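Collaborator request, handled under Task 6.
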Amino acid sequence: MDGKEFVLVLIQTDLKEAMICTERMRTNIEKCSFPCIGDVFRITASIGLSEYQTREEIDTMIARADRSMYRAKEGGRNRLECEA
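Structure tokens returned to the collaborator:
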């Protein structure tokens, strides 16, 4: 099944706080299960983080987060990677 991508912006949150927040989200997501026609469907999250750099274009920050997310997927999925 294909994954979905989205962007979450955590205002006034440094990288360390964002890591704590998103790791909490990731572990809560992996605990969820959904009954589905005699089986149980589970989901996981591969999360990529980046911290805004002064005067950085938003597209650049998102691209860095995207690279981090793909590293998380390549590293085994259901994990968090970040790029400062």
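The cover message to the collaborator said: "The longest strand covers residues 33-36. The two ends are 30 Å apart (CA to CA). Please let us know whether this matches your experimental observations."
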